[in-house]
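Dear colleague,

Thank you for sharing your sequence with our group. We've completed the structure prediction you requested, and as agreed, I am returning the results in plain text so they can be pasted directly into your records. Please verify that the sequence below matches your submission; if there's any discrepancy, let me know and we will rerun it promptly.
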Amino acid sequence: MPSGRQKGSRFTRRILLLGAAILVFALGYTGAWFAAARALESEVAATIRGMNGNGVRAYCEEPEAGGYPFRIGLFCRSVFYENVKKGISVRAGAMRSAADVYRPSRVVGEIDSPAAVVLPLLVPMEIRWESLRAGARLADPLPERISVRGEQLAISAQEGDTAPLATLTAMEVHARQQGDAVEAAISFRGLQPGAQIAPDLAPLDGRALVLIEDGVTMAVEGRLDPYGRSAEIRELVVGIAGQNAEISVSGPISIDENGWIDAQLRVSFSDPQIVMDYLARIFPDAREEIMTAASALSSLSDTPVTLNIRKGRLFLGFIPLGTIPPV
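Please find the predicted structure tokens below.
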């Protein structure tokens, strides 16, 4: 019959073996994690080098992998992207990304404020925010899904009057592949136009669901201009916060190679007099036409009307509203 000392000796050996196994596993895991981190840094550096050239500049300042032990991701002190040919430039603060080591295809990240943004047809802008986070489900050649959420955003011009052009309490963007199309959902709360647009305007809330035809091909080929593109607005609702006054739009829209817009949109109003007065304050040069439309719409109650755009010529039902210039 084994003695108590023999039982204690076997138990001690098992504990020592278990401890040794845990130590070996931890050392092996640590070595594998740091090897993966170095590989990530090398891959990012190679990708950025491949992007640079032919009018494109990009960098991630001081890239460093982090997240040990259960996550892995990339950290940059600042980020920058410029495409001279397309007239696009974005510069922002520190970026942090991470993915669980057991689920590396699902990545989350955040970027520090502010960002300097240059886009075609717009004045150079500076965007500030309290938080800006994103998530993605990675796939080849494009992510299957992307989500972005921002809080307390302010948009202003980089030069001249730098008072905010607009502020937002919160905004969200979600996009996913639908075959070769891209379905995008956008929502925002507390969009406050700045005084340069019109003083003392009430804030707006809104949401939109849009299907962009050939969106995947456009993104893969880097052809992000709107010319020769078409989309379906499945839902677009914008309303004055705290009031029962909103406009709803749905229908197909396209832009030809010369920038002219064609669309057949179904439009409905809740309290059209308030909505059209709001629009007239933003577009004072078109106030007479807008208020004429408001008078006609008031008699229609909640009945939807058709907004036709033919080569930029705009008609609300049978009422001409003017011309939209090419984009």
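Summary note from our side: The chain has a mean pLDDT of 86.

Kind regards,
the structure core
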